[in-house]
Amino acid sequence: MHGYSAPQIKAWTPETDGNARYLRSRVPLAPRIAPFEPTQSRRGLDARPRLAVLAGDYVQPGSEVEGYPYGIGVDAYALRFWQYADLFASWHGLPLEGHSHDPDPPYGLINPPNPGYTDAAHRNGVLSLGCWFWREGDDFSAAVEKTAQGTFPVADKLIAMADWFGFDGYFINQEVGVTREQAALLMQMLTYMMRRAPKPFHLQWYDSLTTDGEVDYQNALDDQNAPWVVSGGQRVSSSIFLNYWWNATLLQESHDYAAQSLKLDPFAVVYAGSEIGKDEFAQEYDPVAIFPTKTAPRTSWAFLGSEMVWTTVEGDKSTIARQARAYARERQLWSGPMEDPSRSGRTKQPDRNHPLDPSGWDGTAHNIVEKSPIGALPFVTRFCTGTGERFFIDGQQVGEQPWFNIGIQDLLPTWQWWVRDLAGAPSNAIRVDYDHTQAYDGGSSLRLSGALGPGQSAFVRLYKTALKLTGSTAVDLVRRMPPAPPGTASPTLRVWLAFQDAPEMEWLTVTGTTGTGWSRWSAPLAQWAGRTVAAVSVSLAAGPDGASSIAINLGELRIGETGREPAPATPTGFTVDRATISGNAASVYLSWKFAPDGVAHYDILRRTPAGRQWLGRTYDGAYCVPLLARGTDGATTTLELEAVSVSGRRSPAAATTLRW
User: Fold this and answer.
1) What percentage of the chain has pLDDT greater than the value 70?
2) Per-residue pLDDT averaged across 119-124, rounded?
């Protein structure tokens, strides 16, 4: 990926942008289900405030000025908490094409969002925004050029780029002053974009530039910056990201100004910014001013730099095991210091001298209601986090190369981790986490481990849903349950369903033999036909002798019709577009006819004498295999492409050949 200057934007077409076909997001924006207070981890929490997240994406070592949708190696941060965000933008900017390794590279006026992150955002119902970041020294007049016909060439191409690359708008960060005339043209251009862009299209304005073209942060929505939201009765932007130096009075005034003067929903328009990357868990401007303890919230919220959970963990992160501290810190940021969204809230006041102490941080879940896109059958997850040290298909390892690709991340559990015993008390007896050593499909599974004493239980809430059951709906669970050690008993595993029309949960016992391999359990849900499942959980219960050395992996959870969808047709047009070969290694650019009906993703594989080897996965019609090693198959390598349905049914493979 790379940035684009204003002249490059005006000249842009997907045909002349050399790698544009390999940098698209095709995952549609998923609708989210309506809030349902009885299943919230924090009962009574106001669902109106929204969250915008401006962050770096993969944050790989040595590639801060490059962007990749996927690649080799596992040393790349993949966000696991989409359920609290409503907007996501990669804010960091990118150098112009061909300049990423310059000592002082020229940056683009805009950078599209990482398409892998857009895929994950859309799958979770989150809008994905590109970033406008103009740097002093460029010709700003080229960015706001207006034709005699009243059009704005840059604006037209920004709309076209968002459509081609599959994202939803832009974060406008104009922190360098311009002339009064240029500021007026910028306002006209944004108004033009808001009017012409197809919905949903979101422009978020950063509280920086005045209408006179000077940089002056207001830290509130007022008559000075409100024209950047509404001017002359026309929408200039969808929302405003307030600069960070606010207080309770300024935020209340912002709320009132939006509601009374602009006649707009304050929570849709006003986002109060917090510098997560700078102040970490000890915010200089306390979010309590946004979310008072005894009165209603005042505005929505915005983060800058939430990737700090990764960057502040120093040392080698080249393996999943060595990343554990980073992902624990991520849980503290989103779920609170207890790493449990149902027990959010600070345990002491923030300490500016110890900004990485999470005990002074409430947790995002303390103020923002968890959201979910799980509102239609079938619902399937394999708990793939978007990174892995190997790859599995149908429980069999088919890849040993570490990889990252958040674009194929599954819908991860809504609550990470909300664990109780069946009496409702918090429980630490069972640990829940992702296991990257074993997976049924992808690179990870969900692991429940620990020990239960006689009669003890652990209840793990997993997913917030709105799934209306039919007479032919069933639940499937693929799991690994090793036999209990001699002289002990295995715990009872159950799947629990909470319904919208009744507070009592219903449960089904997972039956079947234990063993070291994966096994599928299925149960009909016809007895609850017509009812809507509001949450899905699992539990473990020990018998009178307890259960020790518990190590259960969940590889797939599915709720859908008993009769599965047909396998997709064989893909067509599969070909090698080009290959960059260096010695015994190659980067291989592939394409095929994208036919999304009935297809959840495509798998790219290599056929070898020893069997097939996984090379990549995407929901698109193009893919670049970043590093293919020449094998023992001689002067040609056979590559295969399979289309895969949501329930895992595979098409016959299409094949093409790479000639070395």
Assistant:
1) 99
2) 98
For helices 180-196 and 153-165, angle between their N-to-C axes, nearest 10 degrees: 40
Tokens representing residue 325 in the block: 């501290």
Does the pLDDT at position 278 exceed 80? yes
Average of per-residue pLDDT across 323-333: 98
Q: What's the Rg (C-alpha) of the chain?
A: 25
Handedness of CA 598, 603, 609, 611 (dihedral sign): negative
Instruction: Judge contact between 167 and 118, C-beta under 8 A.
Output: yes
Q: Which has the minimum average pLDDT: 90-104, 346-360, 400-414, 513-527?
A: 90-104
Domain 575-659 has CATH 3.20.20.370: no
Burial class (CB in 10 A: 0-12, 13-18, 19+), 139: exposed
Tell me the C-alpha distance between 133 and 193, whole Å.
Answer: 17
Long-range (24+ apart) CB contacts under 8 A made by 316-320 are: 317/61, 317/75, 318/73, 318/74, 318/75, 319/74, 319/389, 320/74, 320/387, 320/388, 320/389, 320/436
Determine how β-strand 169-173 pairs with β-strand 127-133. Answer: parallel
Where do the structural domains in the chain lie, given as residue ranges? 6-341+356-366, 379-561, 575-659
Identify the residue whose tokens are 């599969």.
574
Residue 463 burial (CB < 10 Å; 0-12/13-18/19+)? buried
Tens of pLDDT, residues 48-62? 999 999 999 888 776
Q: Which of 323-358 are b and which e, b meaning 16 or more Cβ less than 10 Å from the residue's Cβ?
A: beebbebbbbbbbbbbbbbbbbebeeebeeeebebb
Q: Which of 644, 161, 638 is nearest to 408 (CA)?
A: 644
On whether the CB atoms of residues 581 and 498 are closer than 8 A, the answer is no
pLDDT for position 62: 66
Give the pLDDT mean for 212-237.
97
CB of 106 within 8 A of CB of 95?
yes
Degrees, nearest 5: CA angle 7-8-11:
90
With bands split at pLDDT 50, 70 and 90, how would you rate the model's confidence at 610? confident
Domain at 6-341+356-366: CATH code: 3.20.20.80
Candidates 322, 235, 290; CA nearest to 46 is: 290
At residue 414's C-alpha, the angle toward residues 412 and 418, to 5°, is 115
What is the percent of the chain where pLDDT is above 90? 90
Give CA separation, 644 vs 120, 562, 613, in Å. Answer: 18, 18, 16
What are the E-state strand segments in 5-156?
51-55, 71-72, 87-90, 110-111, 127-133
Query: How far apart are the C-alpha atoms of 508 and 521, rounded to whole Å?
Result: 11
Mean pLDDT over residues 582-611, rounded? 95
CATH classification code of 379-561: 2.60.120.260
Question: Which contiguous run of DSSP H or E holds residue 9?
Answer: helix 6-11
Q: How far apart are the first and last CA of the chain?
A: 27
**Dihedral pair phi/psi, residue 153, rounded to 5°:** -55, -40
* Distances in whole angstroms, Cα of residue 657 to Cα of each of 107, 547, 576, 593: 38, 53, 7, 17
Query: Contact at 8 Å (CB) between 130 and 92?
Result: no
Alpha-carbon torsion 401, 402, 407, 413, what sign?
Answer: positive
Q: Is the pTM here over 0.90, yes or no?
A: yes
Instruction: Output the CA torsion sign for 565, 571, 577, 582.
Output: positive
Pairing, β 396-399 against β 51-55: unpaired
Residues 194, 171: Cα–Cα separation, whole Å:
13
CB atoms within 10 A of CB 583: 8
Distance CA 120, CA 128 (A): 9
At 462, which helix (H) or strand (E)?
Answer: strand 457-468
